[in-house]
Amino acid sequence: MVRSITVGLDGSAESLAAADWAAGEARRRRLPLRLLAAWTADAHDLTPYVDAAARRERCDAMLSATAERLARAHPELEVVGRRQTGVPSVVLRAAAAEGALLVVGSRGLGAVRGVLLGSVSQATVAGASGPVTVVRGEPGDIPAGPVVLGLDPDQPADELLEFAFDAAATHGAELRVVHVWNPAPTVAPVAVGVPGPVGPTAQELAGELRGSLAATLRPWRAKYPEVTVRAELPVGRATRVLREAADGARLVVVGRRERPVPLGPRLGRVTHSLLHHCPVPLTVVPHR
């Protein structure tokens, strides 16, 4: 099966903006673009004055209009639209597993009019087995800056590094690798004796981290020699530092560790915060 880029549509301005971004990404990667409208008609539907047949027709018309608009803008791009009945987050997670990338808008029409809600996008990201990009704003408003990768060199993941380096190469952009850390206290308790350093200093720790980060990036630099890499070790809170790094970036990439939890998939604190506050497209890459 030919891999494709899939975008979730519900007719909202956010989902149409996501479709525009996805079309550009599909063109750059030379992949087909698949438009997917997921909807459900059940007892919880809150649009009683519009029957199911009319809503299906409206959905199909939206898919056709969007496909025609994107095909005119990108004549070389193969665009296919499809409507699928089912729980939206489940349908979208299945699409993420099958394709090269799933793209969704940051918000949808809302519970009354549509199916691709902000909560649906969040549930999709939390449970997807493939990378998901959440687009906020119009593609024309996205800066032509670097790709920013939030990385922990103690827990590197090939899936995450591969995606970030490939994205930078595809866009012809610099890759800015950011590892946020905080130096641990190095002063011994008075009861032990004379206070003083009992472990590596902050400078020594920074040196160790710099070496670890360089070792992590070395094989990927060799695989993608055309990508300019800037590695950074800022001190602070990861949520704040990465949010600030997003200003001026064209894309932010972070990982999500897949692990079994009793209440189902969850997002980490940093990823959850970025999903709500990142001003540019954010890609979340699941990994083990």
TrEMBL record:
InterPro entries listed in its UniProt record: Rossmann-like_a/b/a_fold (IPR014729), Universal_stress_UspA (IPR006015), UspA (IPR006016)
Pfam families to which the protein is assigned, alphabetical: Usp
UspA domain sequence ranges: 1-136, 146-286
PANTHER family with a match to the protein in the record: ADENINE NUCLEOTIDE ALPHA HYDROLASES-LIKE SUPERFAMILY PROTEIN (PTHR46553:SF3)
Similarity section: Belongs to the universal stress protein A family.
Record-given protein name: Universal stress protein
Origin species: Streptomyces triticirhizae
